[in-house]
Amino acid sequence: MTKVVVHDGNVDGAIRVLKQRNAKSGLQKEIRERQEGFLKPGVKRRKAREEAIKNSRKRNREYNRAA
Prior knowledge:
Elements: H1 11-25, H2 27-36, H3 41-66
């Protein structure tokens, strides 16, 4: 469970921080995947492969930007 402290009555800022933390933890993605129900093994492998390619490209972009 993600907790966020509201400072100076700034609820909008707290909501933004909560959304960012949920995105980083992958909570929304996990909930969405659970709602889809059972996935056949081939579909699960295909999704994992696509995700790995996407993450690899993202890491390469970040690496090239830093260099």
